[in-house]
């Protein structure tokens, strides 16, 4: 009985040491994450082996695993100050969708580290945005060229960051803010241009209507000339004779005076 405490203490100490050993020798990597292994006695960051995927892993207790979020992430750059082509200060709100390249995660950790967002993406976005916006006027930024600017920032930033083990999925220009006086001047100009387009449309429509009426009138005049040219005295007399015959055959009472009309055509007198 007296020996039990002496035996129990080493057992408890062994269990404690074993627990620490197991806790240091295992790691659980969660959903949407990946781990980069660092071998303390084996060359440091492992770059020539696949990264550690989701789930439970056993590692040597003297090694370490750096866990990265490999899902798509978003960083929002608010009120980024840039200059237009004429030197006017513009404020941009930009969202960037990105994620690390999983096969190159070891290289990313070795060359840039866990703070790669502030080392790679944000500086590049700012630099490219300033370069792209500097090609356009405030009016283009405010109205017609926003999509083009967004695409240019995305394509140019993508080329740079992909060489640094990061994947850029999208760049979204959320807002473009101009000084109030410039914005009001642009809006007035756009309204005037719209009014001018509407005025030109009305003029063009009036011209088309006038042309339609002219063509219609010319058609009627041509038809009348053709009809007049075809109505000779002989044709008129023939049609008058035909009409006289039809009237004479009518049951209504009438008086026909032969040869009393112009050109010798009869005059027909009815009850009226």
| Separation of the first and last Cα atoms | 154 Å
Percentage of residues assigned to helices:
40-55%
Strand order of the largest sheet: 3-2-5
CATH class of the largest domain: Alpha Beta
Please, how many helices? 7
Shape: elongated
Order of helices and strands: HEEEEEEEHHHHEHHEE
Q: Please tell me the overall pLDDT.
A: 79
Strand content: 15-25%
What would CATH call the homologous superfamily of the largest domain?
Band 7 domain
Assigned CATH architecture of the largest domain: 2-Layer Sandwich
Largest sheet: 3 strands, antiparallel
Q: List the uncertain runs.
A: none
Pairing-aware structural class of the strands and helices?
alpha+beta
Q: Provide the CATH topology of the largest domain.
A: Tetrahydropterin Synthase, Chain A
Radius of gyration, taken over Cα atoms and rounded to an integer in Å: 47 Å
Q: Could you explain the architecture of this structure?
A:
With 272 residues, the chain is of the alpha+beta class. The chain has 3 domains: 3-69, no CATH class; 73-183, Tetrahydropterin Synthase, Chain A, CATH 3.30.479; 233-270, no CATH class. It has helices at 3-24, 105-111, 116-133, 138-142, 146-161, 180-230, 233-248, and strands spanning 26-29, 33-39, 44-45, 55-58, 64-69, 73-83, 89-100, 166-177, 254-257, 267-270. The strands form 4 sheets. Strands 3-2-5 form a 3-stranded antiparallel beta sheet. Helix 3 crosses helix 5 (146-161). The longest helix is centred in the C-terminal third of the chain and has 51 residues, at 180-230. It is elongated. The protein starts with a helix and ends with a strand. The model has no long low-confidence stretch (mean pLDDT 79).
């Amino acid at each position: 009985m007296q020996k039990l405490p002496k035996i129990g203490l080493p057992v408890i100490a062994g269990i404690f040491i074993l627990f620490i050993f197991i806790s240091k020798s295992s790691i659980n990597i969660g959903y949407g994450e990946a781990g980069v292994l660092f071998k303390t006695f084996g060359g440091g960051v492992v770059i020539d082996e696949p990264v550690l995927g989701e789930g439970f892993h056993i590692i040597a207790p003297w090694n370490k695993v750096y866990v990265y979020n490999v899902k798509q992430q978003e960083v929002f750059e608010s009120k980024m100050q840039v200059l237009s082509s004429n030197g006017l200060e513009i404020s941009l709100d930009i969202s960037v969708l990105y994620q690390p390249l999983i096969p190159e995660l070891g290289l990313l950790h070795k060359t840039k580290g866990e703070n790669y967002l502030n080392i790679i993406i944000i500086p590049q976005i700012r630099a490219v945005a300033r370069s792209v916006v500097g090609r356009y006027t405030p009016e283009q930024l405010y109205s017609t060229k926003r999509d083009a600017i967004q695409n240019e920032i995305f394509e140019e930033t993508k080329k740079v960051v992909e060489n640094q083990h990061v994947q850029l999925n999208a760049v979204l220009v959320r807002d473009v803010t101009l000084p109030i006086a410039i914005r009001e001047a642009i809006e007035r100009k756009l309204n005037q241009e719209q009014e001018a387009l509407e005025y030109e449309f009305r003029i063009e429509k009036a011209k088309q209507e006038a042309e339609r009426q002219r063509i219609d009138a010319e058609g009627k005049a041509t038809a009348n000339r053709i009809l007049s040219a075809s109505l000779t005295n002989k044709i008129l007399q023939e049609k008058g004779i035909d009409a006289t015959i039809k009237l004479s055959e009518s049951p209504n009472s009438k008086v026909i005076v032969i040869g009393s009309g112009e050109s010798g055509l009869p005059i027909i007198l009815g009850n009226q």
